[in-house]
């Protein structure tokens, strides 16, 4: 059952595990994690929105960030912004993107729910707002089938997640707790050993046999399957209607206050990109791969891209009730204490865009600005 609103209003008090997570903000300089705008981004043409020269957008080079990848690759955002130039930056982890947002190095970003909640709580609700959804699903527990034959075989095994306290880490800790397995969140030690490794390192650990499995997003999950892994659990099976938010759109509060028309333009680009992806899946898949190659220098093999793209659903709805539940999972795991959630959403710009586009209504689960 959801926690009471009064409980959720309390300010964040980090336990030791959370201190480790937030400490990554200082150790992980966003400059080293970000890549400047590449030549694939179309040139800004036409009138500047609100007279603004540029808008700085952050995202990950992940299939779960397909909206950002395709919207940039196909020039949808730039078209909506006219003469206001898009400056894009690629990040490897949520904490570094939150740091960049707080430092005004980016204005708008695509990011997972756990970093968004951490960033909002840490700033006592002052620095950012979630303004829309972007993706649902695309997370699996992939294992060596000869070592783990069923979900009852997890005790004593070594499972990897991408980062301490990230969205997948929280999901795995919550699942293990529900199965009766005790794991100390900050160290990952217990009935099951949880190892935190970068998404780039996990496939190497899996192939070498150093880990028995991993709870990971796309395309890492599909890379493990291509290397002989078996999907033991698709996380969407744990959620009502098989939907849960994996990627949100966030904005600096100051930027939203000063440039609401620019925020609306980016959201229009997001909604139009999602519609194009759904109407043109093959072209969208190729666009994702082209952008991944531009960002990292490497394309995904067809067998990995096909499966990863199929497992991620692009959405406009932020699925706010699932973010609330994910925050409660983090609290239960000991990674958050009384997470601040009230006011984390400002869906007024998205509702305006969807109203113009004749789209469905979206809800903030009672966590919107007043």
Structure write-up:
The chain is α/β, with parallel strands linked by helices. It has two domains: 5-136 and 243-356, 3-Layer(aba) Sandwich (D-Maltodextrin-Binding Protein, domain 2); 139-241, D-Maltodextrin-Binding Protein, domain 2 (3-Layer(aba) Sandwich). It has helices spanning 5-9, 16-27, 30-33, 66-73, 76-81, 94-102, 113-122, 167-178, 202-208, 220-226, 253-258, 260-279, 281-296, 302-311, 320-333, 348-356; strands spanning 54-60, 85-91, 108-111, 128-137, 139-143, 158-161, 183-184, 189-190, 193-196, 213-217, 230-234, 245-252, 312-314. β7 (183-184) and β8 (189-190) form a beta hairpin. α4 packs across α13, α6 runs parallel beside α7 and α12 packs across α16. The chain is globular and about 60 Å long. The protein starts with a helix and ends in a 14-residue tail after the last helix.
Supply database-style keywords.
D-Maltodextrin-Binding Protein, domain 2; 6-stranded mixed sheet; alpha/beta; single chain; 13 strands; globular; 5-stranded mixed sheet; disordered N terminus; 370 residues
Summarize the structure.
By secondary structure, this protein is of the alpha/beta class. Helix content is 42%, strand content 18%. InterPro entries: ABC_SsuA_sub-bd (IPR010067), NrtA/CpmA_ABC-bd_dom (IPR044527).
């Amino acid at each position: 059952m959801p926690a009471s609103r009064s409980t959720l209003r309390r300010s964040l008090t980090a336990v030791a595990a959370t201190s480790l997570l937030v400490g990554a903000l200082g150790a992980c300089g966003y400059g080293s994690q970000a890549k400047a705008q590449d030549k694939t981004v179309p040139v800004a043409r036409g009138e500047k929105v609100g007279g603004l020269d540029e808008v700085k957008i952050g995202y990950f080079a992940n299939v779960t960030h397909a909206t950002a990848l395709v919207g940039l690759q196909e020039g949808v955002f730039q078209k909506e912004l006219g003469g206001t130039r898009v400056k894009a930056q690629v990040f490897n982890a949520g904490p570094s993107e939150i740091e960049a947002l707080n430092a005004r190095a980016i204005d708008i970003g695509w990011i997972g729910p756990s970093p968004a909640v951490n960033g909002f709580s840490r700033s006592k609700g002052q620095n950012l707002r979630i303004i829309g959804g972007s993706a649902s699903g695309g997370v699996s527990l992939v294992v060596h089938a000869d070592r783990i034959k069923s979900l009852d075989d997890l005790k004593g095994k070594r499972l990897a997640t991408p980062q301490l306290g990230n969205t997948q880490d929280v999901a795995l800790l919550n699942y293990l707790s529900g199965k009766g397995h005790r794991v100390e969140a900050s160290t990952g030690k217990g009935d099951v050993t949880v190892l935190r490794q970068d998404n780039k390192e996990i496939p190497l650990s899996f192939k070498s046999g150093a880990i028995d499995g991993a709870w990971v997003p796309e395309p890492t999950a599909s890379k493990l399957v291509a290397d002989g892994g078996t999907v033991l659990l698709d996380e969407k099976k744990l959620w009502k209607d098989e939907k849960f938010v994996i990627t949100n759109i966030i904005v600096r509060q100051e930027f939203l206050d000063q440039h609401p028309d620019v925020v609306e333009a980016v959201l229009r680009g997001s909604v139009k990109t999602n519609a194009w992806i759904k109407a043109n899946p093959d072209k969208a898949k190729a666009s994702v791969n082209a952008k991944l190659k531009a960002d990292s220098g490497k394309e995904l093999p067809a067998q990995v891209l096909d499966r990863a793209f199929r497992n991620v659903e692009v959405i406009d709805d932020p699925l706010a009730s699932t973010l609330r539940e994910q925050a409660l999972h983090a609290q239960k795991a000991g990674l958050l204490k009384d997470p601040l959630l009230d006011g984390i959403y400002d869906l007024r710009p998205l509702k305006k865009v969807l109203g113009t586009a004749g789209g469905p209504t979206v809800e903030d689960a009672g966590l919107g600005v007043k």
